[in-house]
Design a protein that fits this description.
Elements (H helix, E strand, L loop, with lengths): L3 E7 L3 E7 L5 E8 L11 E2 L1 H19 L6 E8 L5 E4 L9 E2 L7 H8 L4 H9 L8 H11 L3 H6 L3 E4 L1 H9 L6 E3 H4 L14 H7 L8 E3 L2 E6 L2 H4 L4 E7 H8 L8 E5 L3 E8 L10 E8 L2 E10 L3 H11 L7 H6 L9 E3 L17 E3 L7 H27 L6 E4 L6 H11 L3 E4 L4 H14 L5 H7 L2 E5 L5 H6 L1 H11 L6
Parallel strand pairs: 1-5, 5-12, 9-10, 13-19, 19-20
Antiparallel strand pairs: 1-2, 2-3, 4-7, 6-8, 11-12, 13-14, 14-16, 15-16, 17-18, 20-21
Helix pairs in contact: 10-15, 11-13, 13-14
């Protein structure tokens, strides 16, 4: 009997449920969006109850429409938007507030003050592998404790639970029996020691967070328990958890030291596998847990670009110069270059390697001759330039020279963008046949724990490329423009004061 894996992919704007067979091929998929909440400028929230209901509905529908039985599903893997922070009541299961999303910048001022402490900043990076930024969960959790009425007292009394979206889904799937997270998600909280993968008492004390709120840290691939049989008609083992970018690294079969992938979605997230060595960055990158399997922790260097594909959505929805996201490729291709225009899409500040929460979006170099095609071309180049900066920093930190970049995500369907990226990096850019590898990585982690795949070699054998973009003769021209790009980035920095 064939064995299948159900992957739950809880993303920033939608929930997806996908069933994979033992060849790693998609059998069925269901997806549904949920509400984005913007209470104030720079604030981003989600209704966690809506997320749970949306995720459950897609999971039920994908099983119903797949043509397979629940008995054929060997396990469930979960991957999730990282750093998004939630606190809920242990008895009722009700959140005390909306979830604070990873994009939210309400704690930027607090993080800036903390980073100015000459002792705190290096100590936190050494302990966690992270730079101090509002991106991570620790300052978000502190904000909830300080600003939602009655929460601190209830948390100190042991009545409340904290978790990222993986913890929230597992809690609901097991009717509150399991309060866990995995090593990858824990490593993104700024509360976990990167070397031991344990909650750090000194950091908890520094952020004034009660330890009783925190979930148990588990491996990325193991059988944690089973979901309630009422959801699907039969209990199914919960067997894999990883944050979305870690899952994508695993799904891209970047299992060896030095292999790297870049996911082009709302943002860009570039990870390089560094094996069992945790490389503490000297160039503003993050050291993160890649995954923890069979008692072995493997690490990665990571750089995150906050706005990538989202800049295309902005051109569509706010400027109206394209009607669909796909149109940007045709429009940008009508000009050979942006004619001196540089677009820094720092709508939510700058991520790695700059970490400036007070930067804002900037378009420079425009003249009377600038038209919408130049702006479209500059927007695509901005995505590639931001990824170039991450690669440059990774090569310096790791001492490893990139030989190819594996890519996935919706924006990889843009052939012009991928060619620009290959030209800029001067290495092949290789697109996987699976465009969305986050869910696939979660499926592989669950399948390892349940015996669907015996080892990583079987998983790697499933990986296939759909297209390879080689550096072209025109690449030298865009590489020469990287200096002007960096000047434009400097113009966008520290634009707002609060």
């Amino acid at each position: 009997m064939s064995r299948y894996i159900l992957a739950l992919d809880q993303g920033t704007t939608s929930c997806r449920s996908i069933i994979y067979d033992n060849s790693g091929d998609t059998v069925a998929i269901e997806q549904a969006e949920f509400t984005q909440i913007f209470p104030q400028p720079g604030w981003v929230e989600h209704d966690a109850v809506e997320i749970w209901e949306t995720q459950l509905k897609t999971a039920q529908e994908v099983i119903k429409n797949s043509g397979i039985t629940v008995e054929e599903i060997a396990g469930i893997g979960i991957t999730n938007q990282r750093e998004t922070t939630l606190v809920w009541d242990r008895k009722t299961g009700q959140p005390v507030s909306n979830a604070i999303v990873w994009q939210d910048r309400r704690t930027a001022d607090y993080c800036r003050r903390l980073s100015e402490d000459k002792n705190a900043a290096p100590n936190i990076q050494l302990r966690t592998g992270l730079v101090i930024d509002a991106y991570f969960s620790g300052s978000k959790l502190r904000w909830i404790l300080e600003n939602v009425e009655g929460v601190r007292e209830r948390a100190e009394a042991g009545e409340l639970a904290f978790g990222t979206m993986d913890s929230w889904l597992v809690w609901n799937l097991t009717d509150g029996k399991l309060h866990i997270t995995d090593a990858t998600n824990a490593s993104r909280t700024m509360l976990c020691r990167i070397d031991t993968v344990e909650w750090d008492d000194a950091l908890l004390q520094g952020f004034d967070i009660p330890r009783a709120m925190l979930p148990e840290i588990r491996q990325s691939s193991e059988i944690y328990g089973s979901c309630e049989d009422s959801f699907f008609g039969k209990s199914i083992p919960l067997a894999g958890i990883a944050g979305d970018q870690h899952a994508a690294l695993f799904g891209q079969a970047c299992h060896s030291c030095g292999m790297a992938k870049n996911t082009y979605g709302t943002g860009c997230f570039l990870l390089m596998n560094t094996g069992t060595d945790k490389v503490i960055s000297e160039h503003q990158l993050l050291t993160t847990v890649a995954w923890q399997i069979d008692g072995v922790t493997e690490y990665a260097l990571e750089g995150g670009v906050f706005i990538a594909g989202a800049v295309v959505q902005w051109l569509r929805d706010q400027l109206g110069i394209i009607k669909t996201s796909a149109e940007i490729e045709e429009l940008a291709a009508t000009v050979e270059d942006p004619a001196g225009v540089y677009f820094v899409p720092a709508f939510a500040g700058l991520g790695a390697p700059h970490w400036d929460g007070f930067a804002r979006g900037t378009i420079v170099g425009m003249t009377r001759g600038t038209n919408k095609a130049h702006i479209a071309r500059a927007a695509l180049e901005a995505i590639a330039f931001q990824s170039m900066e991450l690669i440059e920093a990774m090569e310096k930190d790791s001492g490893i020279e990139l030989t190819e970049l594996r890519v996935d995500g919706g924006a990889t369907q843009n052939d012009l963008l991928m060619q620009i990226q290959a030209d800029l990096l001067d290495v092949p850019v290789v697109r996987s046949t699976v465009h969305e590898t986050t869910a696939l990585g979660a499926a592989y982690l669950a399948g390892l724990a349940t015996g669907v795949w015996a080892n990583r070699e079987e998983i790697a054998a499933n990986w296939k490329e759909s297209k390879r973009y080689l550096p072209s003769e025109e690449g030298a021209s865009i590489r020469e423009r990287s200096g002007c790009w960096k000047r434009a980035v400097e113009r966008s920095k520290n634009w707002v004061e609060d």
